Amino acid sequence: MNLEGKVVVVTGAGRGLGRMMAVMIAAKGGQVALADISEEGLKETARLCREAGDKASYYITDISDESAVEQLFTNVAGDFGRVDATINNAGITRDGLLVKSRDGKVVGKMSLEDWISVIQIDLRGVFLCAREAAVKMIEQGDGGVIINISSISRAGNIGQANYSAAKAGVAAMTVTWANELARYGIRVAAIAPGFCDTRMVANVPQKILDKVKAKIPLRRLGKPEEIGHSAVYILENDYFTGRTLEVDGGLRI
Ligand code: CAA
Fold first, then answer.
1. pLDDT of 54 higher than 90
2. Ligand 1: which residues within 6 Å by Cβ?
3. From the CA of 128, how far away is ligand 1's center (Å)?
């Protein structure tokens, strides 16, 4: 896909990886439709995208809400005339051990609420956005690209039962949809970032982050632009589908 003039939806575009991916797509000539729950973050991303490129609009959207997601894609198609690609990036963490004990006594456990809130955004939200993007792309009849953001945590990361489950689900749905949608010329791929320099990772306690960093062969966190570069690569490479691109400095958790 040549990004010049293409309409790309980016969820979770209010900051971090989503913001960087949107700006890099804008710099390649893409028009970006930015979705997030934070208006303040969206405004700033839209400003940066316009500075880097062409048209950018934003949509305050809770991606776990079915009718809000349907409305998002209808609005984007109305405002821009079409939807060529979507990057399903929005996600949250609610880290915690499954069961925490001290001196043989259980002192805590992951709450059902924390389990559900991560599944709602990180798994259900990706499902809804991909589905509505596919509806628009099939109706347009000339293909498209869906990129889902998985994570290195899909392999099973300590303290992230909820997030790991969601991100493994995202990787599995990616393969399923790549197989289902290839007949329409729609490619579906995922990116599995490692630990990147974002606010999400900044929340990890320093002593644990030090342990993680020591295990990364490249000995540093990933930069948001390295994930942005991967998104551009997947969008532009017409033979890339059904795969998860791992961008993690070589870390195996
Ligand atoms: N690697 C090695 N050891 C780890 C670990 C890790 N990733 N995470 C936790 N541990 C260890 C701790 O060092 C500690 O060991 P000791 O008992 O020997 O000291 C033990 O597990 C329990 O941890 P805490 O004492 O920290 O327990 P807590 O209940 O206070 O906190 C926690 C639990 C919230 C899960 C906290 O450990 C934590 O935040 N861990 C990091 C989780 C993580 O990796 N999150 C990634 C966020 S970034 C992201 O998700 C983006 C992405 O896509 C990668």
1. no
2. 93, 95-97, 100, 151-153, 157-160, 163, 193, 195, 200-201, 204-205, 208, 211-212
3. 30
